[in-house]
Write a structure and sequence with these properties.
With 349 residues, the protein is an alpha/beta fold. The protein is 39% helix and 13% strand. It has two domains: 1-30 and 45-55 and 248-291, no CATH class; 78-246 and 310-338, Glycoside hydrolase, family 3, N-terminal domain (TIM Barrel), CATH 3.20.20.300.
Length: 349
């Protein structure tokens, strides 16, 4: 059984029979983990092993683990600073900031890979325009070039740890005040204004080898009347065509308020897949997951299967419990631990 186009969550710290039944559905291709799925490093490793053992082609395992307000696993993990902390260092010591971004990516990736997680939905490539509370200090900077430089070095650190990167939220969520978890944001700017600012980090990160992208549940009416994640204009014409992106496209969570414009859960998933997404996420609503798995009809393109398979973490990672015997990791850990203090975690994906 190959990978399907749907990524789901699971209920708790170990798989239930209900979880297993959903994850065995051929439409499923991945699992996203949350804070409720974690109690200890050992437990997390058992859970990811159980998920991988379910199917002959193991499911992808992902998490939103950016640092700062969005860090799902804490006890036994390094507290990763908000990316804004790297931006503040950039303002005074750009080369130091690049180095610390690399070290941060390495620590983040090595710890997750050491517990069996394939990738994190990071980095945030949104430009901080000073208006979006949900983005806020998750953004590296207000300068697109600074974002590109810091995200590139985070990518290099993640790559060193054996982990791929997912840039979000294409083409940029930082200009709108509304939170797409709770509302349907509308960005009234013209395409040229977005292109000359918010698209810069995405364009440059694609040239640096960005593996995957997550589009925003934001409507840009001067480009298309559909949110970017449901828009062939944004995903096929601009992202694939104009920017030349050949990697994987993950929808943002289809349970979010910003996705409701596309209809019920089956309509949302169909719209996202037809627009160009390779995989769609449905989180924190088991009833929606069941409805989707019962009714979605989608023939998985060969290109999507190949892109998803490429998202696997590198084989044979060092188990997290053994990382502290690695001198390079300990050096990076010491540097990352001194960067800044994190804020409380966001509640949603």
């Amino acid at each position: 059984m190959g990978l399907g186009p749907v990524m789901l969550d699971v209920l708790g710290t170990e798989l239930t029979s209900e979880d297993e039944a959903r994850l065995m559905n051929p439409l499923v291709g991945g699992v996203i983990l949350f804070k409720r799925n974690f109690s200890s490093v050992e437990q997390l490793s058992r859970l990811t092993s159980a998920i991988r053992a379910l199917r002959s082609t193991p499911l992808l395992i992902a998490v939103d683990h950016e640092g700062g307000r969005v860090q799902r696993f804490q006890e036994g993990f390094t507290r990763i600073p908000a990316m804004r902390e790297l931006g503040r260092i950039w303002d005074h010591h750009p080369q130091r900031a690049r180095h610390l971004a690399h070290q941060t990516g390495y620590v983040l990736g090595a710890e997750l890979r050491g517990c069996g997680v394939d990738f994190s939905f990071t980095p945030v490539l949104d430009v901080d325009h000073g208006t979006s509370g949900v983005i806020g200090d998750r953004a590296f900077h207000s300068d697109p070039q600074a974002i590109s430089e810091l995200a590139h070095h985070l990518l290099l650190g993640l790559k060193e740890a054996g982990m791929h990167t997912v840039g979000k939220h294409f083409p940029g969520h930082g200009f709108v005040a509304a939170d797409s978890h709770l509302a349907i944001p509308v960005d009234e700017r013209k395409f040229v204004d977005i292109e000359l600012c918010d698209l810069v980090p995405f364009r440059q990160m694609i040239s640096f080898g960005l593996t995957a992208i997550m589009p925003a549940h934001v409507i840009y009416p001067n480009v298309d009347d559909r949110p970017a994640g449901f828009s062939p204009v944004w995903l096929k014409d601009i992202l694939r065509g104009r920017l030349g992106f050949e990697g994987c496209i993950f929808s943002d969570d289809l349970s979010m308020e910003g996705a409701t414009v596309a209809g019920n859960i089956v309509m949302r998933a169909s719209a996202a897949l037809n627009a160009g997404c390779d995989m769609v996420l449905v989180c924190n609503k088991p009833e929606s997951a069941d409805e989707l798995l019962a009714s979605l009809h989608w023939e998985m393109p060969v290109t999507s299967r190949a892109r998803l398979m490429h998202m696997r973490g590198a084989p044979h990672p060092v188990p997290l419990v053994k990382l502290h015997e690695n001198a390079n990791f300990l050096k990076a850990l010491l540097e990352v631990s001194g960067i800044g203090i994190s804020a409380p975690e966001l509640p949603l994906a």
